[in-house]
């Protein structure tokens, strides 16, 4: 594998501050010299927290990929815990596409025992339950705990969010979880701060996404596949989505 991969990180909401937050957190888990381009959704919600904004976020994620279709990347990272349009992105991308939530849930399920998820915003409770079921991991899930504050609100004021997150993680221990995923682009960078306060091991969804991306790139290179543009996304731009 290249020591300095070229990655596209897509934030499917419209908050450039969240994009910068995720990119900064990601670089801590990537090889020195990694070329990381971070793209923000051109339309939609400042923070995805409902089925409607999730659906729009999937469109925005595809639009981000299309706007970068001619640039060669080693992998695409989808920086939203819930992975809107993940399968659609994989359909048209020329390189591996890694979802933040899928990577974290798979990492949690590799160890014995059940896991819980903690994230911001009550709207995610049912949505993430369905997402985990789609991965076939419902029996491994102890609970999903959400906070009154949304992930976007926690990103704006992490100090106010910390007590809510600590309380939610403590409740996961009572739910029978062996570990807890801290999920959400707006929570990027907080796992390390929460770990010393947690009764459970905390899985950082950003770290899981980076680890999964590097593993996918290694496998692709072992098969002789290297960074390349996405002609499929370019064709999609010409046929389905609004031109910019």
The secondary-structure element order is EHEHEHEHEHEHHEHEHH
Rg estimate, integer Å: 17 Å
Identify the CATH class of the largest domain: Alpha Beta
Structural domain count: 2
Task: Report how far the terminal alpha carbons are from each other.
Answer: 35 Å
What percentage of residues falls in helices of 4 or more residues? 40-55%
Task: Show the helix and strand layout.
Layout: E1 6-11, H1 16-27, E2 35-40, H2 51-67, E3 75-78, H3 86-92, E4 97-99, H4 100-109, E5 115-120, H5 124-134, E6 141-147, H6 151-156, H7 158-174, E7 179-182, H8 191-194, E8 202-204, H9 205-222, H10 231-239
Parallel strand pairs: 1-2, 1-3, 3-4, 5-6, 5-7, 7-8
Helix pairs in contact: 2-10, 4-9
Provide a descriptive summary of the structure in words.
This protein is α/β, with parallel strands linked by helices and 244 residues long. It has 10 helices and 8 strands. The strands form 2 sheets. The chain has a 4-stranded parallel sheet with strand order 2-1-3-4, sandwiched between helices. Strands 6-5-7-8 form a 4-stranded parallel sheet, sandwiched between helices. Strand 7, helix 8 and strand 8 (202-204) form a beta-alpha-beta unit. Helix 2 crosses helix 10 and helix 4 packs across helix 9 (205-222). The chain is globular, with a radius of gyration of 17 Å. The mean pLDDT is 94.
């Amino acid at each position: 594998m290249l020591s300095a991969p070229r990655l596209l990180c897509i934030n499917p909401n419209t908050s450039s501050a969240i994009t910068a937050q995720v990119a900064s957190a990601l670089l801590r888990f990537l090889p020195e010299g990694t070329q990381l381009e971070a793209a923000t959704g051109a339309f939609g919600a400042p923070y995805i927290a409902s089925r409607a904004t999730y659906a729009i976020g999937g469109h925005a994620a595809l639009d981000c990929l299309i706007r970068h279709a001619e640039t060669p990347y080693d992998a695409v990272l989808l920086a939203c815990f819930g992975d809107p349009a993940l399968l659609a992105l994989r359909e048209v991308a020329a390189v591996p596409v890694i979802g933040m939530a899928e990577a974290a849930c798979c990492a949690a399920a590799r160890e014995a025992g059940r896991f819980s998820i903690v994230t911001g915003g009550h709207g995610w409770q049912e949505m993430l339950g369905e997402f985990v079921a789609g991965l076939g991991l419902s029996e491994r899930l102890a609970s999903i705990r959400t906070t009154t504050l949304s992930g976007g609100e926690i990103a704006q004021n992490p100090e106010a969010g910390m007590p809510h997150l600590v309380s939610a993680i403590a409740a996961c221990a009572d739910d029978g979880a062996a570990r807890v995923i801290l999920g959400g682009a707006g929570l990027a960078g907080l796992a390390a701060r929460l770990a010393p306060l947690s009764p459970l091991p905390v899985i950082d969804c950003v770290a899981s996404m980076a680890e999964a991306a590097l593993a996918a790139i290694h496998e692709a290179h072992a098969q002789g596949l290297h960074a390349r543009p996405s002609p499929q996304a370019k064709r999609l731009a010409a046929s389905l989505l609004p031109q910019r």
